[in-house]
Amino acid sequence: MVEQKNKKKVFLMILGVVILIGMVSGLTYAFFNYTRTGGANTIATGRIYFNTSQGTAMNLTNAFPIDVSNGLPNNNSNVGSVTINVLGDTDYTGGIEYLVSAVGVNNTVGSGNNERAVPISIDVSVSNNTENDPATNLGTANAEYFTNRGGNTSMYKILANDTISEDDELLVGYIAPGATGVDGNITIRAYFDKAKVAISDTYPEGNVTINNQTYTNGTTSDWANNRVVVTTDEWNALQSNGFSFQVKVESKEGIWVEEPASRTIESCPGCKFIYTEMIYRYDNGGYSDSLEALEEGNETLYDDYNDVISSTGKNYFLGITINDTTHKIEKAYACGIKGENPNMGIPFCIEGLDSSFTDDSDMLNNSETGIWQGNCELNGNWAVYCEGDISAALNGDGAAFVGTDVNNNIDGGWCAAVYDEGQAFLCR
Question: How many angstroms separate the first and last alpha carbons of the chain?
Answer without folding.
Answer: 58
